[in-house]
Design a protein that fits this description.
This protein is mainly α. The protein has helices at 2-17, 19-25. The termini are far apart. This is Coatomer subunit zeta.
Length: 26
């Protein structure tokens, strides 16, 4: 449950930072 929430928050953070920038880091 906590892990799922953490993952959702992480997705939101990545979305704010920018999908393009995340792809470059990946």
């Amino acid at each position: 449950s906590v892990y799922i929430v953490y993952t959702m928050l992480g997705d939101v953070c990545l979305f704010v930072v920018g999908k393009d920038e995340y792809d470059e880091l990946a």
